[in-house]
Amino acid sequence: MGRASRQLPRRGILATMPDAEPRIAARRSRNQNERNRNTAETRWTQRKIAPVFSASIASLRLNSARDFTTPSAMPIRPRHLEPGATLGIIAPASAPPKPKNVDLAIAALEKLKFKIKLAKNVHKRLGFLAGSDRERAADVMQMFTDRKVDGIICVRGGYGTARLLPLLDYAAIKRNAKIFVGYSDITSLHCAFLVKSDLISFHGPMLNSDFTHDDLPAFTTQSFLRTLMRPEPYGDIAAGYDGKTKTLRGGVANGQLIGGNISILCASLGTPWQPPFRGRILFLEDLDEVPYRFDRMLTQLLNAGLLQQVAGIAIGINKNCFDPNAKTAKEYRQTMEDVFRDRLLPLKIPVVMDLPFGHIPHNATLPVGAHVTLDATNGRLIIVGPAVT
Fold first, then answer.
1. Radius of gyration for the alpha carbons in the chain, expressed in angstroms and rounded
2. 324: pLDDT strictly greater than 70
3. Of the listed 223, 285, 289, 371, which one is catalytic?
4. Which of the listed residues 50, 105, 233, 296 has the most CB atoms within 10 Å of its CB?
5. 291-303 vs 336-344: helix crossing angle, rounded to 10
6. Residue 285 catalytic?
7. What percent of the chain has pLDDT over 90?
8. CB contact at 8 A, 199 and 173
C-alpha cells in the first residue's frame, strides 16, 4: 500500500472524531491571533528602535566626517601662576632615588618665589612605586581639589602613572582645572586629562630630574616660568636655545599638540585614555632606547593607522638612544635618524627632529592640547594658542 493510502485512514479518523471541526477552527483562530501579536510587536519595535538606530548611524557619520584639523572645542586652559603661588608636589609614579632630592628641588622652587605644599604620600615607597595605587591617586585628587593649591608638579616619572587612570575622578579634575606639570611616565596623565577632562596640561621639568640640579639651564627655567605665568601664546619653543634642529621633511602644519614619551603613548593604545590623532601635531621623545626598539614603537603606531592621521611630527632629543654595539667600520647599524627617515618620510608630512624637549637639560615646557604650528622647513615648533588664562 502506498504512503498516500496509509495516510487516508488517519484523515478519515480525524474527520469522524466528535467536535473535530470546532477544534480545527479554534486552532486556526489561535494561530492567527499569534501571528497578529507578532506583527504588532514587530511594528512597535520598528517604531521605537528605528529612530534610535538611525540617530546612532547619523552620529557615527558625523563623527567620522568631523574636521579634526583644528582644535575641537578649545580645551580648558588652567589659570596662570603668579609670584607667590602654591605648587602641590606629588609622586604619581616612582619614588625619587634619594629622598633629599625632594628637599633640594623645593629649595629651588622657593627661589623662584613659589610656595610649596607636599602631598600626604609623597615620601612613601612600595617597591618600584611611590606608595600604593590608591595612595598616589588620592594625592592627585587631593591637590586638584585643594583650593589653596594653584598648580601641581611631579617629583619624577619612572613607572606607575598608568595604574592610577581608572582611580581618578576626571569630572572633579575638570571642575578644579589647574596647571599640572611632568613628563616621561607622566605622559599617561597628560593623555588622560586631555581625553577625559578636556584639560591642557604641561610636558615640562620635574623636581628630581631638573630642579635638583644647580646647573639647570636658564632656557629650561625661563620656558617653564613664561609658559605657566603669562596668559599669551609662547611662540617658538626653541627661542633662546643655542642648539640646532634638523628638518627631515619640510612643510608647515597646524593642529592641536599631543604626545610625549613614545613608550607610554604606545601603552595607551586601545585604552579609554588613548588620545585622538587625526589632524594633530604629534611630539615624541624617549630615553635609553636603541634604534630598533624605537622603530618597533613607530611601527606599532603605523600598524594601528595612527601616524597616517597626524598633520606633522615634532621629535625631541632622545637621550642615549643609540646602539652601543654598532661597529660602523665592520657592519651597518641604523641610527635614530635612519629610523625616522625610513618610517616617517613615506607619510609625506612635515617632520623635524632635535627640538629642545625630553630627558635633557634643555627641556622646554610644552602645553599638551594647545594649538601649535609646526614649521618643519625652518625647524620650529610654535605655540600659537594661549595655554593658560
1. 31
2. no
3. 285
4. 105
5. 20
6. yes
7. 68
8. yes
Q: What is the pLDDT of residues 16-50, one digit of tens each?
A: 445 556 555 666 666 666 566 555 544 544 444 34
For 340, residues 6+ apart whose C-beta sits below 8 A from its C-beta are 248, 298, 315, 351, 353
Give the pLDDT of residue 58: 38
Judge whether 282 and 314 are in contact, CB under 8 Å.
yes
Q: Which long-range contacts (CB under 8 A, 24 or more apart) does 334-337 make?
A: 334/291, 334/292, 334/295, 335/291, 336/291, 336/294, 337/246, 337/248
Alpha-carbon gap, residue 42 to 47, rounded angstroms: 9
Of 87-91, 104-108, 120-124, 230-234, the range with the lowest mean pLDDT is 104-108
pLDDT in tens, 156-192: 999 999 999 999 999 999 999 999 999 999 999 999 9
Side chain identity at residue 247, one-letter code: T
Question: What letter represents residue 358's amino acid?
Answer: G
Assess whether 184 carries a catalytic annotation: yes
Has 359 been annotated as catalytic? yes
Cβ proximity of 75 and 201 under 8 Å: no
Q: Which of 184, 188, 197, 223 is catalytic?
A: 184
Which long-range contacts (C-beta less than 8 Å, at least 24 apart) are formed by 321-326? 321/286, 321/287, 321/288, 321/289, 321/290, 321/291, 321/294, 322/290, 322/291, 323/290, 323/291, 323/292, 324/290
Closest CA to 265 of 224, 227, 237, 306: 306
Average pLDDT, the chain: 85
CA 324 to CA 321: how far, in whole Å?
9
Catalytic residue (choose from 80, 190, 203, 359): 359
Cα 195 from Cα 272, distance rounded (Å) = 8
> In order of start, what are the domains of the chain with their CATH numbers?
86-383 (3.40.50.10740)
